Hints:
420 residues; 15 helices
Amino acid sequence: MAGRARNCNIETTSARKKLKRGRQPHWQTLEPGKSHLGWQRDPDAPEGRWLARRFDGRKYTVRTIGVADDARKADGDAVLDYAMATRAALAVVDAPSAKKPPASYRVRDAIEDYLIYKRNRGQSEAAQRATLLTARRHILPSLGHLIVNDLQPETLDAWAAAIAAQPPMDRTGKPREKRAAPEAIKRGKASANRIGTILKAALRLALQHRKVTNSQWLIGAKKYRDVETPRTDYWTVGEAARLVAACDPDFAQIVQAGLLCGARWGELRQLRVQDFKRDHGALYVAAGTSKTGKERFITLSRQGEAFFQSVCAGRGRDEPLLRTANGAAWKLGQQRLRMRAACKAAALRPIGFHCTRHTCASLSLMGGVEPHLLAANLGMSLAILLSTYGHISDRHRKERIEAGSPKFDFPLDRKVVALR
């Protein structure tokens, strides 16, 4: 028999703010002993989610039905208020329960459900688009038609090996290099690891939601070890100045912004004038625009404050903070050709806009910014900052070791003879 659930007030945003955050949901009874509507919010999540729970006579089954209107206005689709969530939960619990997982559930269905799940969890639009493009290019063509319950480990092993052996493609679909050099082989295996992570996450979600029963594939497509080769690119102060000088005025402005605050392209292009907090000397990155789906404040240096104050002067609160020459907001992918042209004009190796983030991280570390403060500013973990973004020059490393190493007071010209 089902246990008695404690009824919680989850009807309004103000009432939900008083509830404890964590993995344990708060439930409200729809039908005593049979069904409930739940609300749950992770400690670091910007908003909660609605859950529907049904008792089938033996156990409860729980299903996520949407994002709660804790931070965004309800739209009846991805974001639901209490009334919408109640109707959706009743539709779920009144639907006939599936005795068995669908026999025709395919890999493409798992990928589609995974994308919906990530959207409902607040993943940014840019991250969703990147996942979708990766799936369309590398997963769906060879695995999309396969039934998940029929997947075998050797199938995923062969797929991962083919991904690792595939040369990287440019945007026209032509290979950029051959997989012959050792470093190129490592890059191919690292790509297979990243793509395999998306595939397995989608399959695990299907298994968790009981849409499939086969889990043999878990032992397939094991990750390649010791193949990650983090980028070591960053610009010096002089190189960054050359790059900015080589850009068109409107593009130079957003490049300067990236160098000064280290935000991602997708975050910078969606900033509004009101996101610059003058009183705090910071930029506000909303959860919906962040790659990680978490809001944060970027504390600015004095130079950064002065830059954004000049950018915001005389502007409306809802206008794009960083604009193109015609006054419109920047779009996804609009930076690629401009970066290539600017790097060529500045006599720098062609590299993407993301290098502004690496440059901000590296120069800040070498300038003495404490790593944990910088990691919070950039919206990443300390481990990722130190392993991937914080590039320290050999000269700086030598200077810092020399300055901080102990100085012993003993002669160095003393002759020492080994005893026999």
